[in-house]
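A further point concerns the way the authors explain their paired sequence and structure data. An entry of this sort, consisting of the sequence and the corresponding backbone structure tokens, reads as follows:
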Amino acid sequence: MTKAEGIYGSDIRLQVVGITRFSYPANIEAFNHSASTLQELQEVLYAHERLDQRIHLFEQITLPAIRGQSDKDFALAILIGENLPSKYQEKLEALTGDIQQVHLVRKPEGSGHKEICLEILTSMRDAQSDLIAEFRLDDDDAVAVDFVERTRTIAMEIWPLVRSQKRVELDFCRGFLLDVKGPRATAREIVVPHWTPAQVYFCLPNSPLSIMSYRHTRFWTGNTSLSEAKPIMFVRGVHGDNDSSVNFKKLKKSIRHMPEERVLKFLKQRFLIDIEKI
């Protein structure tokens, strides 16, 4: 946990923590699927062909920028089920073993989605910190290499606001849609509010709530929300196995027309993603 001096002159102890759910079978109501029992859900999520794809996307999209964060002072929990086939547990251990900020958390399948994530996130908090910054990252999405650094900078600037409001959203709303459904992956710039990638939830360490306590598109309706649209800060993966689908027609006005060569440059510079490997 880093102490940083904000514009108000005091040292603020900020802790940055995140969670990624890697094919974790929560209670069956938490997914868009046809499974009627937990056993059926596990069979769907733990199918080897599906897991091979998820491991590949996790390795090529999510992990590069996590490994390459300019600010190393953060923690990321990877939630997996206890029954995840050992082959894939071992692969995850191998892929994340060199990233000291990442640790695997094994939990029994069937837990409440929000409840288990809240339990993990709150257990990661340091009571000695002044401020918590939480994020959630799907296993096929990414944040930019300066995500933690920029989050910390903004936290120092808005500390009095968080202290008075108790919880504040920071919405990094500019990023890329990375479509891997076809024979060749393609990416488009997009500006869209309140998506989960690069969404930050600021709270005090004793808060009984977490980023998982709210629907990501609805937090702003009852709380303070700040939008940061300048930096390209996230990648949203789009493919046939997404639990939450992307409607390109509805997003037409949100998509920006960036030349392909610039897109590829940004993907490599800001996310360390080589689109040819996906």
Notes: The chain has a mean pLDDT of 91. The chain has one domain: 2-277.
